[in-house]
Specification:
heterodimer, A: 281 residues, mainly alpha, Helix Hairpins, Serum Albumin, Chain A, Domain 1, 3 domains, 13 helices, 70% helix, flat, B: 214 residues, Rossmann fold, seven-stranded mixed beta sheet, 6 helices, 24% helix, globular
Chain lengths: 281, 214
């Protein structure tokens, strides 16, 4: 074992007492292939013998993983909350400004289509007057805001499955993030009864109902889920109730256990199939 | 088949049950220095209980993929040598760190078993065994990618979850497909259904295929 190691080992360039450097190396480092690291470490003078090497490795992996877990756990659901709220803000503002652009550009140019796509068309115009310059500049902001919303959405799609694997699998990453944001966090969501999960996002309708002015809402944001939206109206309440029940369980599994449970998803699929079968009966 | 050194059958509540020596982890019953290794909570425990020849002798150097909260990993570390435990989900990894803190030979890593390059700078080569229990699609691919850590006659000890590959297909068909993929990199020595203890799981013992080692 005298040949050169294939890639930098975690202890490469790390002083034996420097815990931060060891953490960074373990957390962020990589190698194309493994090697007989204990032998290399002793040869390189990182440790006097194998026992000492393993002691150092133990100390370093335990503290690195503890810190990495803390970071990931602390961050995850809160970042999703900010992400989905920012995405909604960006989309809403882009649409609002696009209306203004359409109104303004309609007065200046011959055809100025409505909406964000309309604003994108205005961006390509070459302005000649100061007013046109301002209208085109405003259209550029709309396009940039819309790009930001798209980027935020893809961030959520990447981040949500790591934070809440079951919830994301069941609801899709964006709806999962939205439920987490409405509840205030994954822990808050998992402490809510399924009846609350069912009407999250329908607070106005719920309070109207509670003050006796309206029937109870059948669903909140979970309406966007295929299982609710594409079930016939008379069975939608049942579908929403079944979905909310499983979502509440998924959130609890994600918070307290964190592993993917295929059975849960299968149970929901079966239940929805039963509810939809009523339409054929 | 004989049990690895450090694993013994001990009497608990009048039954002969597997046990290892170490600090209790999850409130399991103990008898002096021995603590119960519950086959219903551990797939490797179930394999030993069912008489599967895992190839583990005691004192082995092990890479554990999908260590979860460290229940099984703690028993492995009780009777094996250096034990590298890889887990991807932060929540169970938190418990794994707690288990590892009390075991000098258990090294926890918050890494994705599908990307061995992210831990090849830490995990040594020439290991005696890989224990694989990952809930992901492509379990054969995970095994193939991690083969580089094994010595030529090392053992892959895998618990294949049918439902991770395809929840709708019949487990038999899923197992056949996974074994087929696995044979590209491994020679399968033994398989056993674990249904008595774990539904829809197949134990697979394999070693690197000699003709494909570079």
């Amino acid at each position: 074992m005298t040949d050169e190691p294939p890639g930098p080992a975690w202890f490469h360039g790390v002083d034996s007492g420097d815990e931060d450097a060891a953490c960074n190396a373990i957390d962020g480092g990589q190698a194309d292939e493994p090697a007989d690291w204990p032998t290399h470490a002793v040869e390189a003078g990182f440790a006097a013998d194998e026992d000492e090497y393993y002691d150092r490795l133990h100390g370093a992996t335990v503290s690195t993983t503890r810190a990495a877990v803390r970071d990931r756990e602390r961050a995850g659901d809160q970042q999703l909350k900010y992400g989905v709220r920012a995405m909604d803000d960006a989309e809403r503002t882009a649409n609002e400004l696009a209306e203004r652009v359409a109104e303004w550009a309609g007065a200046l140019f011959d055809d100025a289509p409505a909406g964000v796509d309309g604003a994108r068309a205005v961006v390509n115009r070459s302005p000649e007057t100061p007013a046109e310059r301002q209208a085109v500049s405003l259209a550029e902001r709309v396009a940039a805001l819309d790009d930001e919303a798209v980027a935020l959405r893809s961030y959520i799609e990447r981040a949500a499955p790591a934070v809440a694997p079951n919830l994301s699998r069941m609801a899709g990453p964006v709806l999962a993030a939205r439920l987490i944001a409405l509840a205030g966090g994954l822990e808050d969501l998992c402490k809510k009864p399924s009846g609350t999960v069912q009407v999250l996002g329908a607070e106005d309708a719920l309070f109207a109902h509670l003050s006796g002015r309206a029937p109870s809402p059948k669903h909140g944001v979970i309406y966007t889920h295929d299982y609710v939206r594409n079930t016939r109206p008379e069975d939608r309440g049942s579908a929403a109730r079944a979905l909310a029940g499983k979502l509440a369980i998924a959130a609890r599994i994600d918070h307290y256990a964190g592993d993917l449970r295929p059975d849960l998803h299968e149970e929901l699929d079966d239940r929805i199939a039963t509810i939809r079968a009523r339409a054929d009966g | 088949m004989s049990l690895p050194d450090g694993v013994e059958r001990q009497g608990f509540d009048g039954h002969e049950r597997l046990a290892t020596r170490g600090e209790p982890v999850y409130g399991e019953p103990t008898d002096g220095p021995w603590r119960l290794w519950d086959a219903g909570r551990s797939k490797v425990g179930a394999m030993l209980q069912l008489g599967v020849d895992t190839g583990l002798a005691g004192g082995d150097a092990v890479l554990y993929l999908g260590a979860a909260s460290g229940t099984t990993a703690s028993h492995i570390a009780d009777f094996c040598g250096p034990t590298y435990a890889v887990e991807f989900a932060p929540r169970p990894a938190r418990d794994l760190v707690g288990v590892a803190a009390k075991r000098q030979n258990l090294f926890p890593l918050l890494k994705d078993a599908r990307r061995p390059d992210a831990y090849a700078h830490v995990v040594e080569s020439g290991l005696d065994a890989i224990v694989q229990d990952v809930a992901t699609r492509g379990q054969a691919r995970v095994a193939a990618r991690n083969r580089q850590f094994l010595r030529p006659d090392g053992r892959l000890i895998a618990a294949i979850k049918a439902r991770s590959e395809d929840v709708t297909a019949a487990p038999e068909n899923v197992f056949a497909a996974v074994l087929d993929d696995l044979r590209d990199a491994y020679e399968v020595l033994e398989t056993a259904r674990l249904d008595r203890h774990h539904d829809d799981h197949l134990a697979v013992i394999a070693r690197p295929r000699p003709d494909t080692i570079d």
